[in-house]
Design goal:
The structure is a homodimer of 340-residue chains.
Chain A lengths: L4 H17 L5 H7 L6 H13 L3 E3 L6 E3 L1 H11 L7 H12 L5 H16 L2 E6 L7 E10 L2 E8 L3 E8 L6 H15 L4 H6 L6 H4 L2 H15 L6 E4 L13 H11 L2 H9 L7 E5 L11 E10 L2 E11 L4 H20 L2
Antiparallel strand pairs in A: 1-2, 3-7, 3-10, 4-5, 5-6, 8-9, 9-10
Helix pairs in contact in A: 1-4, 2-3, 5-6, 5-13, 6-13
Chain A binds a DNA duplex (30 and 30 nucleotides) through helix 3.
Chain lengths: 340, 340
Amino acid sequence: MELSERKKKILQHVVDDYIETAVPVSSKSLTERHLSNISSATVRNELSALEELGYLTQLHTSSGRVPSAEAYKLYVSDLMVKNKLSDKELDYIKKVFLEKADNLEEVIKNTTKVISELTSLTSVGVVSPDVGEKIKVIKFFRYKPDTALVLIVTERRLLKDNYISVPETMTDEQLVEAETVLSKLCAERSFEEVCNIKDDISSEFSGYKNIFLNLVEALKVYMTVKESDVVLEGEDKILNHPEYADINKIRNFLSVVTQKDKVMTLLSGDGRDIKINVKIGTDGYEEIPDDCSLVTATYSANGVKIGTYGVIGPIRMDYQKVVAVLENVGKILESILTNR
Amino acid sequence: MELSERKKKILQHVVDDYIETAVPVSSKSLTERHLSNISSATVRNELSALEELGYLTQLHTSSGRVPSAEAYKLYVSDLMVKNKLSDKELDYIKKVFLEKADNLEEVIKNTTKVISELTSLTSVGVVSPDVGEKIKVIKFFRYKPDTALVLIVTERRLLKDNYISVPETMTDEQLVEAETVLSKLCAERSFEEVCNIKDDISSEFSGYKNIFLNLVEALKVYMTVKESDVVLEGEDKILNHPEYADINKIRNFLSVVTQKDKVMTLLSGDGRDIKINVKIGTDGYEEIPDDCSLVTATYSANGVKIGTYGVIGPIRMDYQKVVAVLENVGKILESILTNR
DNA sequence: AATTAGCAGTCAAACAAAAAGAGTGCTAAC
DNA sequence: GTTAGCACTCTTTTTGTTTGACTGCTAATT
């Protein structure tokens, strides 16, 4: 059912005010602040109707109204006035991204830092797994007699956190040889493809079968999101929100947010095309406390999805600001990543 | 002034009980629980004297006694009975350290995880900077036309988080050449020494002066503690302590603990020989909230200090357990690191 | 001289009752 | 459809009272 214009307007003000003050919104305050042309009694009737429709709730019979999860959803999709960031904020974003960042990981870290700073919320970022990434070069670096560091250069980043064991009997020359051969084998293929050529290794490569199998294991690690790919920033920001005055709520929130694996499943869920994605309330996601929202955006370079970033915080968050920040950061981020 | 045996005993019980219950300790409870041979009135006299001496405080005139920072210090150094860990706990520690860990960083992460788990406190770990470390090999890996990854193998670890820029005009062969030459130059010298040979580069090396200068910059990064060398675990554990029921206290604590640079300065301060180092209350350390303690231990391999680890938490913490955990983890850690 | 019993005094915490205040819902008039 | 006005509800704040856990002190005891 479509709401009347007036209902929409009133609902918008309720959400606006509630986000601003964290106090249940009364009919009187609405007329005083925004609706001087109609009486509080009229507003009361409308509020009552909006409650009937499921957009508002009351904590008790004689309290003001609080938006429901449904109301927030409508607010974000329809009601909310899109905000622009101040010049100061824009400058801040630009400044941070001007800093030297040699690799994707640093860029993500900067991103979450900026977002958390500007929104005063906990921010999360994750790099998508490398499943479809094309490999450019593979390099082995033996630094212990039986262990070698694996370096993998892909289109977008340099992976360097994996080790394979090599036979101590293998000479350095043989290892270089293996490197050359396997690099050739993998070049221009995606992680997925490389993992699937397990069986038909031609005679040319057969001497390095063991190393290759180790390599495949290493690749697999990068094909699912790793904990180290999840970046969190400002976990403590939640403490500044009045509705989190209760220790148990904080504990609950932190227990979600400090477990990176939980955050991973949260973020990996949405592979949709929508740029900005808002999950309000549980929305069926068990991982989030039901008074939380998750607002995320995906970023891509040259049309390929690189990762997801966003904020997680109380359902009563400043969506105007959050969306504005995510959009602006997104723009800058994409331009940086595309020009690499 | 030396305390009488009886005073010591009473003080010990007060601290024990207070650590256990978090409730101010009364004369009656002391006689009931531990001192059935003397009357509560006598204990009251002793408590009063101990308060006079600065070891105990009262929250208000008719409350039980709470240990002062001084009392905790005395408790840890003199009074406390050293505890042994249960077999279960020992097994747990051993199990964790049996897991494969290819590098020092992973070992530290495991260490902090174990400590936080067993003590229910926030634990911190930091790897000492590499100032005096001897370099074994240096490797450049060009992964973008103008950027190369620097790999440095030292006695204790593989450093791989630094990039230098190289002229695009430089061929891969020249880079390998530079690598060989500089590796030779640096081998068996410490970071410090390498940084100081800036001037007298002999003609043999002079062709790579620029690269060398870049390399020195990279080395310098490892000569001070970096944020990524600081590991924190269980930041949320503080929420389980009853004296941290106040949001502001939590905020205060978390603001220290989430800023790795603050933790860095905290941990880098103590280069003393003492194995276990206890800082109770502020003790002049501005960084710690004054109702917190920091208990740390340094670990070394083959006589060289490798880093520091420990716990940070409320002044009322289970020092018996903390010390026991740190000592046991320390033993295992040193044996692992020494045998590498 | 050290110990102890006993008691008065103190203070926080728990409880209860009352008052104040903010809002709504409803009715009747406009 | 809108609005004024009032009764009603429920929270929050205030105030007062009681209870109980301690201590400190004094005077008696060992």
